[in-house]
Design brief:
The chain is mainly alpha-helical. Helix 2 crosses helix 4. The longest helix is centred in the middle third of the chain and has 16 residues.
């Protein structure tokens, strides 16, 4: 899977993330897609002026159920498969 296919890459890595809710998982995939597309840029720039997307990304990061470990494990598990 090439990182140049942003949405496919993000979906493959994070679709099985244990976020506790499918909406959070969808938001994780969407946020990862934006950040991969704009690698090295801030969240604000990666959301390309979409304030709702930007707020959604920040809410995702503030959510206690979406820990770095949850995100990391999802990526590790995809790689291991």
């Amino acid at each position: 899977m090439s990182i140049y296919h942003h949405s496919q890459w993000s979906t493959a890595h994070f679709e099985k993330a244990n976020t506790g809710d499918t909406r959070r998982t969808k938001r994780l995939i969407e946020t990862a897609t934006d950040m991969v597309r704009c690698s090295g840029k801030s969240i604000a720039l990666s959301c390309q002026g979409d304030e709702a997307k930007q707020e959604g990304a920040y809410q995702l990061m503030r959510n206690d159920l979406v820990t770095p470990e949850v995100i990391r494990c999802s990526g590790f598990n995809y790689t291991a498969e």
